[in-house]
Amino acid sequence: MLTGCNEAFIISTEKRDEILANCQTEDERRRTAALIRPIWDN
User: How do residues 1-42 score in pLDDT, each as one tens digit?
Assistant: First the structure.
């Protein structure tokens, strides 16, 4: 069975912000942000 989530990583908000801050262009920042999804915890 394929889940579509074979490579997933959990990162903190601080790490997300650091990754986005290191993007070179606004386009790169936008595309990178689109790849980072929130995790929902019940």
Answer: 566 666 778 899 999 999 999 999 999 999 999 999 888 766
CA distances from 16 to 2, 3, 13, 27, 34 (A): 27, 24, 5, 16, 12
CB 39 within 8 A of CB 10: yes
The Cα 1–Cα 18 span in angstroms is 34
How much is the pLDDT for 5? 65
33 contacts 21 by C-beta, under 8 angstroms: no
Of 19, 37, 39, nearest in space to 29 by CA: 19
